[in-house]
User: Fold these one by one.
Assistant:
Number 1:
Amino acid sequence: MVRDSSCQKHLDVVLEAAGFDLWENDLVDGSVIRPVSKVLVELGYSPEEFARTIDGLLSLIHPEDLDVLRQALDAHIKGDSENYHAEFRVRSKSGEWVWYANYGKLVDRTSTSLGRRLVGVSLNVSERKLREREIERLNARLVEQNAILQELATMDAMTGVANRRRLLELGESEFERARRLGHALALLILDIDDFKAVNDVWGHLNGDHVIRRVASICAQNVRVNVDVVGRLGGEEFAVVLPEVSEAPAMALAERLRAAIESEVVALDGGGAVTRTVSIGVASLTADCESFVSLLARADRGLYAAKQHGKNCVGKAEDR
């Protein structure tokens, strides 16, 4: 008996040094054989307040965590898990929620009985949970920052539309899809007419205002998450139009031309300016070998529009 008492004292010392609190419950009559005294003291309770029954202790556990605890316990009682393990929040006397981990095992298990006594330990894991939440927060922030960086890498910084590299990537992807499925695909190329005069007369900052307004008008007049507006460079833009044949592409080009012509752009230092665009249109045909070849056809249409006096819409066949 002295040996048992001595072993128990040694066990208590080891568990306390490791931060564990030993407990024992009777699962048949619901009584607490050995309460979680250390846990109750940490939480600001006296051992008598909630240590009489299992239900009394369960009343301290966060409602959202009760199912987790019960499922872990049921799995162990049924023999689906070798040990019982659950992590949950416990309400302190001051109202704060503190994270604990429970580890336990049924004893007195026989071939005809699943055992009535559950013996285990509890451990305060609040610091670990705080670290885990901080890591999760930092990971979420990292994912967000990576998404922003990815967007910046594919976006034209001045206008917010796709940059040239992204435009060519998406254009090639849409080209391959259209060829594979036998669907329509159209492409517009827009160039701001006589743009050099804007820079020469009103300055490059005002030239940037004009470029941004043209990009904005294009983005506002196409299908969101379907069509792709991109800046090829300088004052030249392109619009990729999946599932669009030549006639509706020509109609959209004309709407864009008219909208840009009627737009009045305010200038820094006072005054305003209007500008027109020439637009080339191309649609997917059997002789197109790649998106680049479709781009070349639209470029020939743009050249035709310039040759016809600018501020108009042209096709390669118009040359």
Number 2:
Amino acid sequence: MNILTLLTRTITRLREFVAPSYRPERHYMRGPGPACARRSSFQ
């Protein structure tokens, strides 16, 4: 691994630690879960 690659990776990781980029797929919810479905079916 050359020094430029190591420096680039270090800077990228440091930037992500200080100001993480928003990725919607990390926070995406698929919908209500089975507990919610059970609650609504009995009412």
Number 3:
Amino acid sequence: MELRQLRYFVTVAEELHFGKAALRLHMTQPPLSQTIQALEEELGAVVFERNRRGVALTPAGAALLPEARRLLAQAQQLPQLVQRAAAGEVGRLTLAFVTSADYSVLPPFLRAYRAAYPQVQITLQEATSDLQLDDLLNSRIDAGLLIPPLPDKAKQELDYLPVLNEPLMLALPAGSPALKKKGRLALAALPLLPLIIFPRAISPALHDAILSVFREAGVTPEIGQQAIQMQTIVSLVSAGMGMALVPQSVSNLMRPGVEYRALSDATPLVETGLAWRRDNASPVLHGFLELLRKELRKTALC
């Protein structure tokens, strides 16, 4: 079945006259009649009742008319749909993110992206950096907001864009005696609580950055609990299980029983960045990257 046949059928159905329909279609009547007959043969049903009084739709023709109009309208929209897909304006994007990104860069950027590309379907997955790298290397996600560094093997296949650098902050159980002091706190002056920390296998850069702060302060922490999600770490602090050093953005996670304080000790900056497959030619991904770079330039100018 051809779209041309459906267009001829709709025209005859609207005119209920082969001669008038032929004039609208800028053709003669015989080839129009032949096209309708060929359509009826293909459908296995008569769509027009022809008699001396004129032309009328049969029940089969009446059922076909709205569907034919729908198909013709969809066909007319195809070029625009293809052009928008090529421009990254429609499609699907799968984005993974570490927990700290959910309390910093992710919400404002997603708002900007949704405003710019309202018809792109975004699938979000919270995942640790190691899982994101595996998903990227196996093309299960389009991009991931993670904590670097990238392993050497991953660098051969992935591109990376730094997005955020932030200091570490201290998270203490509410009511801790150290919190009576106002302002910044020094690790060496704190009564040591067990340290709640990311396992090194999950995020070696963050794990090492946290321990380096204690090392520079001349303090040897007792590692009490290890957890792979920021929410879990903060929950363990709120339960009085120990203290934690977390990226500054995590202080936006307000949880009863936890207080956040800046440190007077020097802390390394924890970086969060976006990684994606170098060979991913998706227009949706490239639109995402273009907007992210634009938003980062705006932030840098502020």
